[in-house]
Amino acid sequence: MKIRNTKLLQLTMLTVAGAAFAISCNKGKSSSSEQTSDVVASKSDAAKLTVSVPVAQITAKVGAKKEQVILIKNEGTKPAANIVLSGLSSPFTIKPAITPVEPTKTDSPVKTESPAKVDASAKAEVPAKPQSPAKTDEGTTDPAKPVEAAKNSCEIKALAPGESCEVTIEFAPEKVGSGKETLTVQYMSEGKALSATSDIAYLAKGKIELEIPKLPQFQAEVRKPVTQTLTIKNNGEETITGLKIAELAAPLSSKSTCKDTLEVGASCDIEITFNPLEVVSSLVDLKISYNDIDEDGNEKAVTATSQLSYQTTGIANLTIESTADYLIANVNSSATRTYTIKNAGNGKATKLALPVLVSPLKIGATTCKAELDKEQSCTFDVVLTADKDNYETAGYAMAVVYNDGKVQKTAISNINFKSVPANVLNLSQYKVATASIEIGTICKTAEVYGNGSHNIPLVSTFTGTDINGKKVDVKLADVMKSTQVQLVAGGVSINAPGIKAEKDVYSKCIDGSSIPEGVSAVYLASKANGQTLDVGAKLSYVEKDGKVSSISTDNYQAGRIKVDVKDNPFLKISASSLYSIGIKADDYSGGLVTRDNYRLFKIEPNLKDIPSLSIARVSQIRITNTNQNKSSNWYQIAADKFSTDLAWFDQGQRKTFMNNQYRREFYSGKFLNGSLKGSETSVNLSKNKSTNLSLAEITSQDFALASISDSGMPSWVGNYQWHLPFKLEMQGTDSFGNQFTAVMGDNF
């Protein structure tokens, strides 16, 4: 009983709960140990287990997991059995064997023979370890199904003398720290409870975190250095080692209080200086290297960067060009002047704002932005819009507001402006020294018909020089807008009547030649038939200083022109020789004695003798029944219509008592303008029937008369009137606007 109780006590000492194991047995091999184990043995001829840890200290980073293999070897002369490992706690765990271990089949202590009867190779039995309750399918524990805890390789076998086994332990630190854990190995040999111990040192390293802030942009004037301090701080859990600050290239330089190491929570300063020798702007990286910690707790070199931005600055100095010249606009027009803003400083101007102007001034187009770099310029237009002719201001201040890099400043320029009447020649670019004007015509002869409609072009020539002897360059169109045509009589000049600013259908030379397109001229018309006009000119101009002056041809006879005013040529031409008339198409309706005549008469101008009738305008016509000597009223002819209807008119008594005659008369008709014929090919007449008469022989220079004459019903066939004689009177104007009356006749 005493022996049994002793064995039970020994077995109880070997019981270890809650360990998980991984194993690898290595027979016949030995490994050196950097740590020694303490072995307790009752006899020198018993088993002797030693524990070898290959490293002096196990190191890992917080949050990581690191495995370490430990060698257990039997260096005694007897086998070691019932091996139990204990003593390790968090952050260590012993990993279980890969091969599952069969659970113990009995909970009863094993009887042991007396030491004298135990075979040296026999394995001693120990009480079973506490068992964890088995899990059911539903995840709850079932006390009826105990499961033995997992064992490592050394616990599932006996070690013969010289034999060894390997145990894997896992180091998984959760906080920074260091220390040691003692691994105890308990075993049985020759019926004796023996043990061995080994200290395992460990080190748990924390995270490395170096705070590197970002500096604002370096801004400095050329050769005026500025300095900023970059403070870096160790916000990690370990001392930072291997700290190095890389050198910076010009225009940057640095000096530092940082050493090779930086304790937790400590900081050091890097003083960075920006010293530009010229205008520069760039981005560079400041490189900071130090040692970080990997998962196994080993140091590794890393490099962090802090981006540095720099730019030269200075004081901006804006100027606006200024001039004493007036900005001048004619009434109902506008004038524009471009102003240039220059930055004469050595810094950038910001928050640039153009002048705020009041009517009649306003800002026009501009190239200016909110910023203007040194040595740069931009432009803006000032527009003067004149809605009246009495604007005049000198010294109006225009202010450009900007920030010079330090404070808000203002650049000021004064402007003089003025408005003048529409007919004043704008010479605001010049200070005029000499000026003269003359007037003439581009026609071969200075002649005009005195009908008030015909007009000929007059062209002014302005000649001038400025105070530097430079020719005044001015557009003819501007000169003509400012020219006042005058009539000179007895040394007195008056503004000529009948002056037209634009040409019209009657604008041509008296020889019939037309005025070329694009000619700048004014046009003279007159009703002074038979007279010669002494035509001169007057012109007013304004100079750059706002002064208005006038010049004329009053005392310069060579600058004037004599214009002969011709009488109406139709006063000397027979009215019957202007146009000819003849039938070009006809038709009839009715019986032999009651026939109505449908006729088309061509009215053709005598262009051989009177070429001005090639473009004639007929304003009215009149028809006379010469048989009855009855005339119609004047039919008004529309100038813009191809066809004008002609209605019946009273032509007197058709039937006479004496010879019982029933006379033919004009029933209705149409007057046609050949110049407006367009695509028309025929004209339709309708009375007892509808008929179309061809217009093939009617040209654009012709007119035409389409008529229906009614025969009536005579009492005796001998009194039948086949044709009706008529007279046509036609009034209008020729291509010069000369009035004419043409007379012609034929038979309806």
Description:
By secondary structure, the chain is mainly β. The protein has five domains: 204 residues, Immunoglobulin-like (Sandwich); 103 residues, Immunoglobulins (Immunoglobulin-like), CATH 2.60.40.10; 103 residues, Immunoglobulins (Immunoglobulin-like, Sandwich), CATH 2.60.40; 140 residues, Immunoglobulin-like, CATH 2.60.40; 173 residues, no CATH class. The chain has two helices and 51 strands. The strands form twelve sheets. Strands 29, 31, 33, 34, 37, 38 and 39 form a seven-stranded mixed β-sheet that branches. Strands 1, 3, 5, 7 and 10 form a five-stranded antiparallel β-sheet that branches. Strands 2, 4, 6, 11 and 12 form a five-stranded mixed β-sheet that branches. The relative contact order is 0.07. The N terminus is likely disordered.
Q: How many β-strand stretches?
A: 51
Oligomeric state of the chains in view: single chain
Shape: elongated
DSSP strand content? over 45%
CATH class of the largest domain: Mainly Beta
Instruction: Report the end-to-end length measured between terminal Cα atoms.
Output: 173 Å
**Helicity level, as a percent range?**
under 10%
Q: What is the number of helices?
A: 2
Unreliable sequence segments: 1-43, 99-148
Total domain modules: 5
What CATH calls the topology of the largest domain is Immunoglobulin-like
Alpha-carbon Rg, integer: 64 Å
CATH superfamily of the largest domain: Immunoglobulins
Compute the average pLDDT. 85
Q: Which CATH architecture of the largest domain would you pick?
A: Sandwich
